Amino acid sequence: MDELIKICFEKAKYIAMKYVKDVDIAEDIAQLASIQLYLNKDKIDNSKVNSWLFTVTHNLCMDFYKKKKNNREILVDPLELSQHYSYEKNKIHEELDIDAYDFISASDKKILKKYYNENVPLAKLAQDFKIKSSCLKSRIYSLSNEIKLFHLITSDVICFKPIPATKLTKNLNKFISVLLKALRNNDLGSMKRYCKDAIIHQSIAKIKIKSYETCKIQIDGVNEYRLIIAYLDFQSKIGIFDIRFLITDSRNIQVVEMPIFHKQVLIIDKKYIDPKNAEKELLTRKGLYNNKLGSVEEMKEKRIVRVIQTRGDIDEK
After folding, report:
1. What pLDDT shows up at residue 264?
2. What is the pLDDT of residues 252-305, one digit of tens each?
3. For residue 213, what is the DSSP state?
4. Cα–Cα distance between 165 and 142 in angstroms, integer?
5. What's residue 183's pLDDT?
6. Per DSSP, what are the bridge partners of residue 67?
7. Which of 281, 285, 243, 273 is nearest to 261 (CA)?
8. Helices marked H in the chain — which ranges?
9. How far is CA 219 from CA 154, 155, 157, 186, 215, in A?
10. Residue 23, SS3?
11. Given this model, what pLDDT does residue 160 score?
């Protein structure tokens, strides 16, 4: 095994340890990743070895959890991720490999390396690159969030809100704007760029949106996601529907299927929780309900929750 494979084995092991937390398993995964690298080394661009290795190792870790049928129970803690990939000057991890992020341009990589890895002051960096300090600070913030979003998505975190100042967030906001306009005008033709080969259910005609409220992204499988949209209808009732989609290499949205309705949607009575703090109090850092008020069945029995929408409601409209 040549020197490159040995180096990649250690990198793969380091990545795997962030997911499996077991040295023996991490080494097995790293061995598999290294073998795949060796078999494909002639096909991989040298500048993309790190990103290729990260993706393959991550996928092997997810395969490990899927085989145990508990991958949605044992997942990377987003808090740990935010600490490990912290982009404040004094908290950046010394082994963060900026070259691994193919979605960042070569010029921006130079800026991040200078700022984070070489500790060049912002003012000096702005002078060297002939950029206003305020503009440079904004660019570094945006790039750091892009990296954070990349790790949130690839870590298989269950649920998270779009991160500001990222291309995906901008594309997501644009997509939602186009979607709302299309629904209000009953004109899905305006969504052709997003819906090529998508499954569009007839029930979409039954969605009547008075005001858009919020959205979240949820992992839905290998390279697939769900956009959960909450809105108010013209009777001021809450409505929820999902859109299954892919994220392209350029961070664009590609719809796979919509709309998808849940068997039932529950809401907690306001007297049991402050709606403003509900998410903070009732969800784990993985976006899962923490059972603070009991199981779903227990909450139903105690009438802590009530059903606000069922699939049958949609069918009856």
Report:
1. 85
2. 899 999 999 988 888 888 888 877 777 778 777 666 678 888 888 888 889 888
3. E
4. 5
5. 92
6. none
7. 243
8. 3-20, 23-40, 49-67, 78-84, 106-112, 122-129, 133-154, 167-185, 278-282, 296-301, 311-316
9. 9, 10, 7, 29, 14
10. helix
11. 67
Q: 152: how many CB neighbours lie within 10 A of its CB? A: 20
- Regions of the chain where pLDDT drops below 70: 1-2, 4, 65-96, 154-161, 221-222, 285-288, 315-317
**In 3-state terms, what secondary structure has residue 302?**
coil
Strands 253-260 and 199-200: parallel
Six token digits for residue 282: 């009732």
Selection from 150, 141, 34, 163 nearest residue 101 by Cα: 150
How high is the pLDDT of residue 155?
61
175 touches 188 (CB < 8 A): no
Radius of gyration (Cα) for the chain, nearest Å? 22
Summary mean pLDDT of the chain = 79
Instruction: From 215, 129, 27, 40, select the one nearest 112 (Cα to Cα).
Output: 129
Closest CA to 135 of 149, 125, 147: 125
Coil, strand or helix at 12: helix
**Each residue of 115-137: pLDDT tens digit?**
888 888 888 989 998 989 888 88
Q: Which tokens is 48 given?
A: 């993309």
CA 41, 43, 47, 51 torsion-angle sign: negative
d(CA 174, CA 163): 14
| pLDDT given for residue 201 in this prediction | 93
Closest of 162, 14, 151, 155 to residue 74, by C-alpha: 155
Tokens found for residue 71: 């991958």
